[in-house]
Amino acid sequence: MATILSSILEAHDGEVLAQWLVALKASGGTGGGRIKEGELQTQCRHFLDALRQALATAKNSDGNIQGAAFEDVRELLADVSRSRAAQGFSPTETASFVFSLKQPLFERLRQELGGDTARIVDESWQATQVLDQLGLYTTEIHQKSREDIVARQQAEIAELSTPVVKLWHGILALPLIGTLDSARTQVVMENLLQSIVDQGAEIAIIDITGVPTVDTLVAQHLLKTIAAARLMGADCIVSGIRPQIAQTMVHLGVELNVVSKASLADAFALALQRTGRTVVRSKLAGTLAART
């Protein structure tokens, strides 16, 4: 298997490449034009070279691609799969990069072996084993790459969705939107504690207007955040508890053990009062101003 396939790839690489590119485009392996033709040709040419060298080296191989002979092939396919995952290719489109090579290779095998049906079947089967493993390998790498991308995006969204806002000197606000889970609570806590240190904050207002529901688990996450803030020397005020959430918390027996206000404005007014400030209307500008 290794000898004849490597010989075919060495003697007819140009023809195989041309037929492969046609089959690749027909199978949707270009992702609807998301990859440039020049880049695609370069990837295909490098893959054929790596595959030929691997087959020539693993002459007595049983078709297992996990050996040292296929190391360069695996690395190349891993790069192709990761780049396609980043470009939004589907697993099928990515796997087509390998599977579409079957047609030109099998056609060339039939031409080389003539009427030797038994050998054609045997060589085709062994080639299928190698290409199927390589195709599945691209799918595995693609799936892992997509999972890594999604996890990174979720982490970035979690950070963006938990901004710590400086309302006044020594007063911070943390508006929460969406559901609190363990992973997000960790991000919230880290952002809040770092901001308390950076700003020297005395009071942190945790606004849960955008939290759809508060159950026992969410309450526990809030309490952890509040306890951590207190350890850093900042008092906490919870705002945005809607009537429905208040009823649910009473029904569940959830106690936050912290001062709460119905709105962020009320919480801010209380925070100003605690820090010895008052809000008055300026007669000159007709606007509100804080007075120490």
Automatic annotation (TrEMBL):
<dbReference type="InterPro" id="IPR002645">
    <property type="entry name" value="STAS_dom"/>
</dbReference>
<dbReference type="InterPro" id="IPR051932">
    <property type="entry name" value="Bact_StressResp_Reg"/>
</dbReference>
<dbReference type="InterPro" id="IPR036513">
    <property type="entry name" value="STAS_dom_sf"/>
</dbReference>
<protein>
    <submittedName>
        <fullName>RsbT co-antagonist protein RsbRA</fullName>
    </submittedName>
</protein>
<dbReference type="Pfam" id="PF01740">
    <property type="entry name" value="STAS"/>
</dbReference>
<dbReference type="InterPro" id="IPR025751">
    <property type="entry name" value="RsbRD_N_dom"/>
</dbReference>
<keyword id="KW-0597">Phosphoprotein</keyword>
<dbReference type="Pfam" id="PF14361">
    <property type="entry name" value="RsbRD_N"/>
</dbReference>
<feature type="domain" description="STAS">
    <location>
        <begin position="161"/>
        <end position="275"/>
    </location>
</feature>
